[in-house]
Amino acid sequence: MPDALTALWSKVKQVDDCLLWTGTVRKDGYAVVWHDGRLHRAHRLMWETENGPIPDGFHLHHKEECTNKACVALEHLELLTKSEHHKLHRRRQETCKRGHYFEPDNYFVDSKGFWHCCTCRRDAQNERRRRARRSRASV
Asked: Residue 42's pLDDT is what?
């Protein structure tokens, strides 16, 4: 593991308070690295290399003062429960992609933690029903 750790740290450059990954960075801004035959997010791999596996039910989060997703500085990362993590990100997103507000009675979180707009879901169900009625009427 020491050789793997040295190789990981060789891809890091200090910029201000951040340790930025100089290897591959995806379009969404997250740094990625191949390790043990699979692709990992660099910040997660660095965390796990230093602190051990991320416990089930927890998410690794870039703290508020560090908005750079390519940063792998351990002091800029924190473990949050799934619900804490979603609350933080929910705070930044006030509406769905169609502009409906995420009020307490207008969203639900699926089993994977994704937020869904109840208004959009209801509109989509109504549209499917209208199409089904039209197709039955035309037969």
From this structure: 92
Q: At 32, which helix (H) or strand (E)? A: strand 32-35
Where exactly are the structural domains of the chain? 1-81, 93-139
- The per-residue pLDDT for 7 is 75
Non-local (6+) Cβ contacts of 62 within 8 A are 43, 68, 69, 71, 76, 77
Q: H helices within the chain, ranges in order? A: 2-9, 42-51, 82-92, 118-137
pTM of the model: 0.61
Q: Is 104 helix (H, G, I), strand (E, B) or coil?
A: coil
DSSP letter at 55? Answer: P
Instruction: Please give the single-letter amino acid code of residue 55.
Output: P
